[in-house]
Design brief:
This protein is of the alpha+beta class. It folds into two domains: 75-375, Jelly Rolls; 399-440, no CATH class. It has helices at 62-67, 94-106, 118-133, 166-171, 173-199, 209-215, 306-309, 358-369, 376-380, 411-418, 424-432, and strands at residues 15-19, 52-56, 81-82, 86-88, 109-113, 144-147, 153-160, 219-226, 243-248, 252-256, 259-264, 267-271, 280-285, 288-292, 299-303, 322-325, 334-343, 387-391, 399-403, 435-440, 450-454. The strands form four sheets. Strands 4, 5, 6, 7, 8, 10, 11, 12, 15 and 17 form a ten-stranded mixed beta sheet that branches. The termini are far apart.
């Protein structure tokens, strides 16, 4: 089912809420924090004052707008390879633990190798997930679909900590079984990683990571990326990336190297990556885009904004700005199979930057993306200044819609249109189509993790000294 999510666009003139500070503290220039390596515009602690002052963002946002914009003529051939710092899961000495922490504070990305059972569990899970996601989408409400900026199609299956949704498990039993096996392996590795960092954390006021790993409201996503098959999709488009540069609004992504599969009769079959050296994940390191050299037998961890903003975890973690290039050489029958887990806080944990419990933040996030009132102040703190919160998929709550009396729309058309809530015009179109809501997906809709994206371009927000 194709849902077209309308991104929230904020112009250069839109006002945001920031803390009111005395003149000697607050100046019309960005302050540099030596531990703030994500190029966002920086202000003092946003939770100290309670008053808010509405000001234009343009004077402060130059760093993030410049850092996260990509010129249209960027060629993936120009992305140098990057060796991800790798550490043995069962051989972490005191020295390697400190080296691992240092890597997370500089580039923000590491890998764990020698993870028991990982490679076999990864292959089985990705193949079963690809098979499920490429099956007949009719009446498969839990399968989200989105067209990315370059025309790439992304189909998504989302699983929270309660496990695979019953409707998905009934439709794709092998997916449910392999997901359980894969997550057992990932859970073990993530817990050992968290315990290793906790063991060298000398900040007595910091939150430990291991309890969060055990109790967090984590989210698993499977993405199946594919080309449309049209001639234009196989040529260079105006979009240099398939998935735009962003930093995830979560604690950390736990992921494996993607695999490629081709649709075939009776399921999917494994195929080679059609462009191993010139497509795939790209990350920002020292202001430059690089292509991490991913390995089949290693588990990868990438820092999100949450480890820097949501609490004190004892380290100066570096959120990873990243994007993705889909190989255009791939036939439309080929899917790029990606699995990731977003580590999130427990629902009852209070966030430092918003003052909300994480459960309340999730509710506010959903209402914010639905353009409901009363949550703007919390959401202005959800991302660093200069970025805007967006959903990575089109819908987090799926209603059951069908044609009402006098409607010429089909059930599928009603389901597609009326589950889009990113823009008021979409709701009006649902009404015009004479669709009626008859219920919701049992057990709730699809969760989605959030991304922090820039909402101003360098032209809208010039570097200091170049303002007009």
């Amino acid at each position: 089912m194709m849902l077209f999510f309308r991104h929230i666009v904020v112009s250069a003139q839109r006002l945001i809420r920031i803390p009111l500070y005395p003149p000697h503290v607050f100046a019309l220039q960005s302050k540099t924090d030596p531990h703030n390596t994500t190029n966002d515009c920086h202000f003092p602690n946003p939770l100290l004052p309670t008053m808010r002052l509405a000001v234009t963002i343009a004077a402060w946002c130059a760093k993030v707008a410049t850092a996260m914009s990509v010129p249209n003529d960027v060629n993936v051939l120009g992305y140098p390879s990057f060796d991800v710092p790798s550490f043995p899961l069962n051989g972490l000495t005191l020295a390697t633990k400190h080296t691992m922490a240092s890597a997370l504070e500089t580039t923000g990305m590491i890998s764990l190798r020698e993870v028991p059972g990982f490679q076999a569990a990864r292959r089985r899970y990705l193949q079963a997930a690809a098979d499920c996601a490429t099956s007949n989408p009719v009446d498969f409400d839990q399968l989200l679909s989105k067209t990315l900026m370059d025309g790439t199609i992304r189909r998504t299956l989302s699983i929270n900590m309660n496990g695979v949704h019953d409707a998905i498990a009934d439709r794709c039993p092998e997916f449910a079984t392999s997901h359980a096996q894969y997550t057992t392996v990932v859970n073990h590795a993530t817990a050992k990683f968290a315990a290793a960092l906790d063991s060298i954390n000398d900040d007595l006021t910091a939150d430990h990571l291991l309890p969060i790993v055990h109790e967090g409201h984590h989210l698993d996503h499977f993405h199946a990326y594919s080309n449309t098959g049209s001639e234009t999709s196989k040529t260079e488009t105006s979009a240099p990336l398939s998935l735009e540069l962003h930093a995830d609004a979560g604690l950390m992504i736990i992921m494996a190297k993607p695999l490629f599969f081709a649709r075939a009769e009776g399921g999917v079959r494994s195929v080679e990556n059609p462009n191993e050296k010139q497509a795939g994940l790209v990350i920002q390191v020292d202001g430059n885009l690089v292509r991490p050299d991913l390995k089949d037998d290693e588990l990868y961890l990438m820092v999100g904004e949450g480890l820097r903003l949501w609490g004190n975890f004892g380290f100066h973690f570096h959120p990873v700005v990243h994007g993705m290039v889909m190989p255009k050489e791939a036939d439309a029958s080929v899917v790029r199979a990606f699995a990731g887990r977003m580590l999130l806080l427990p629902s009852t944990k209070k966030m430092t930057n918003t003052g909300l419990t994480f459960g309340a933040y999730l509710n506010a996030t959903t209402r914010y993306l639905k353009h409901e009132s009363g949550v703007e102040s919390a959401m202005s703190l959800a991302c660093p200044v200069g970025r805007v919160l967006q959903a990575s998929d089109e819908s987090c709550t799926l209603g059951l819609w069908e044609p009402d009396e006098g409607s010429t729309a089909t059930k599928e058309q009603c389901m597609r249109q009326c589950n889009i809530w990113g823009h008021p015009s979409d709701a009006k179109k649902c009404v015009a189509m004479k669709c009626k809501k008859v219920g919701e997906v049992p057990g709730g809709g699809n969760d989605c993790w959030m991304m922090c994206l820039p909402h101003l371009t360098p032209d809208q927000c010039p570097p200091p000294g170049e303002e007009t």
